[in-house]
Amino acid sequence: MPELPEVETVRAGLAPYVEGARIQKVTLNRKDLRFPFGPDFVSELEGQTILRAARRAKYLLFPLSSGKTLLSHLGMTGSYRFVEFTYKDPSRYYEPPPGEKHDHVIFDLHHPALGDLHLIYADARRFGFMELFAHEEDSPYLKGLGPEPFGNAFNPAQLAARLKGRKSPIKTMLLDQRVVAGIGNIYASEVLHRAHIRPDCPSGALVDKPGRLDDLVFGVREVLAEAVEAGGSTLKDFRNAEGGSGYFQHHFAVYDREGEPCPTPLCTGTIHRIVQSGRSSFFCPVCQKGA
DNA sequence: CCACTAACCTGTAGGC
DNA sequence: TGCCTACAGGTTAGTG
């Protein structure tokens, strides 16, 4: 499900509800997601107040009042949603929610203005994971991440340094989170179409060609910004935290459009599909060129 | 260091 | 309807 635009949409949806909320209780319905939860995961969360909902690359980050930060990656199918709980006063014992099959983590929150909130993390494939860290440099997941696409550190010169001499196809390099953070399989294809670059172009060959990396940087920023604006993409079941779906999928130029005409104005091409590193790439062989 | 593959796990779509 | 295969938005571990 989630590349940068989807994760950013989730973050924005969660923020008004979780920022300032106190974590009253955490329930783990299993001992692991992709990785086991840390031994003190629950005890380090309970009693803490969530200060902010932030994002780095495809990671959600929740700095806590204790000084530690909760990191959450959605994998392919992770999602957050709020559910109503039924309290049976006066004991304040509550009925657990109906419960979907893949509800793995339940956060009982208390927000000073909004009252009791119950946030559920569900993840069918369990490629997602969570961890707590004290300092960013302690997290193996954040270490080595490339620049944020919207930051100044992502620019043609930085890209040139990373791609120089590399033979790997540019599509593969865009998926490498050490090169630039947040792009996944959908937006890699979309970005390259926007920049008029073939996905199988050897990365290093783009470095010496004037303007090609400028086009690429521009394409990355433009496509991701449009997707964030659209609330991300909903392919199967992506929902933001408030239950709504994104609609950027209607704007896909090439992704999953094999055989359709290329949407570039005046272009007569047809969208092709190739497999790179075991994953589908979509492109127009007419308006997308190598170096 | 680089390039590539397999693996993790479940659901779904499509063919027969 | 059922069975089978292929594939899915991500990342890591392991191999040359």
Structure, described:
The structure is a single chain. The protein is of the alpha+beta class and 291 residues long. The protein has helices at 4-18, 41-45, 156-163, 170-175, 185-194, 203-207, 212-229, and strands spanning 22-28, 54-56, 59-63, 69-73, 78-83, 86-88, 93-95, 103-111, 115-123, 129-133, 272-276, 279-283. The strands form 4 sheets. A 4-stranded antiparallel β-sheet has the order 1-8-9-5. Helix 3 crosses helix 7. 37% of the residues are buried. The structure holds a DNA duplex (16 and 16 nucleotides).
From the spread of the alpha carbons, the general shape counts as elongated
Radius of gyration: 21 Å
- Largest beta sheet: strand ordering: 1-8-9-5
Structural class: alpha+beta
Summarize model confidence as the mean pLDDT.
91
Tell me the β content: 15-25%
Distance linking N and C termini: 31 Å
Largest sheet: 4 strands, antiparallel
Tally of helical segments? 7
Question: What is the helix content?
Answer: 10-25%
What is the total tally of β strands? 12
Low-pLDDT residue intervals, each spanning 5 or more residues: none
Q: Provide the succession of SSEs.
A: HEHEEEEEEEEEHHHHHEE
